[in-house]
Design goal:
GO terms for molecular function: acid phosphatase activity. By secondary structure, the protein is α+β, with helices and mostly antiparallel strands. It has a single domain, classed as Rossmann fold (3-Layer(aba) Sandwich). Helices cover 36% and strands 10% of the residues. It is built from 8 helices and 3 strands, in the order βββαααααααα. Strands 1-3-2 form a 3-stranded antiparallel beta sheet, with no helix packed on it. Strand 2 and strand 3 form a beta hairpin. Helix 2 runs parallel beside helix 3. It is globular. The two termini are 14 Å apart. Bound molecules: 2-acetamido-2-deoxy-beta-D-glucopyranose (2 copies).
Length: 237
């Protein structure tokens, strides 16, 4: 499942006793057994299949990428139809799996809070998943020909968005720099020095020096494959 880029982390917060937590009502809580109550559920999901970012294309310049028509009609940095289909399946899965247990049978604004990063592709992913997760019940149906209702989400400002810690959390960035120059890390990376050399030879205009650079290269190869550009033969194992 090399190309599976959706992942889900489901964390159930259980609290002892039957009293609701301060600031919550007892209504959405679900009795798990006699003396434990489900107070909160958190679900994290990544965006679906996408086209490449300009940053990635700039980092690894190559002739094939210059033809912008291959990104039509999505544009760059965008969710593809496959990505939408995957997000929709995730919404359907969650609805079937948790209908009437963790999830109420209908969208209730006091029960559900939705947050996404301020990227078109993540917002489109969440909108598509929500279309499957919260199909309108008869009371919510507003257009007889459309099995969809609007469900809102929040997008925090860049500097307040904890999902983007790897760009804006200064402490994380400092610690990461420290790890990169630590003897332990350098020892672990030694076996790959030949690989970096080889990759730099294949992408002469790039400068691949860290495992993170290789991660970005892998992202780019996958994103290009999403728009029909097969990986170069030397990359296939
Ligand atoms: C979820 O539960 C509601 C109420 O019991 C039911 O009407 C609906 O068909 C269920 N939806 C799914 C997808 O199972
Ligand atoms: C490549 O990147 C490294 C680490 O960021 C930097 O020290 C080096 O100067 C760069 N080399 C070139 C040719 O850009």
């Amino acid at each position: 499942m090399r190309f599976l880029i959706l992942f889900i982390l489901l964390a159930l917060v259980l609290c002892e006793g039957t009293e609701p937590l301060p600031g919550t009502t007892s209504e959405p809580a679900i009795a798990v057994d006699n003396d434990r109550l489900l107070a909160n559920t958190v679900l994290l999901a990544a965006h679906g299949d996408r086209t490449p970012d300009q940053d990635e294309l700039d980092k690894f310049p190559s002739k094939e990428h210059y033809n912008d028509e291959i990104y039509f009609p999505y544009g760059k940095k965008a969710l593809t139809n496959k990505g939408k289909q995957r997000a929709y399946l995730v919404g359907q899965y969650l609805r079937h799996r948790y209908n009437n247990t963790i999830l109420s049978p209908m969208y209730l604004p006091d029960e559900t809070y939705i947050q996404t990063t301020n990227y078109a592709r993540t917002q489109m992913t969440v909108l598509t998943a929500l279309a499957a997760l919260f199909e309108p019940t008869p009371a919510q149906k507003w257009n007889p020909n459309l099995n969809w209702q609007p469900v809102p989400y929040d997008t925090p400002a860049y500097e307040d968005d904890d999902f983007l810690y790897y760009y804006q959390c200064q402490r994380y960035l400092r610690l990461r720099e420290k790890v990169y120059v630590s003897p332990e890390f350098e020892e672990q990376m030694k076996p790959y020095e030949g690989l970096y050399k080889y990759l730099n030879k294949m992408f002469p205009a790039s400068n691949i020096t860290t495992s993170e650079d290789v991660f970005y290269l892998d992202n780019l190869v996958q994103a290009l494959e999403n728009v029909g550009v097969p990986p170069p033969q030397w990359i296939e194992c």
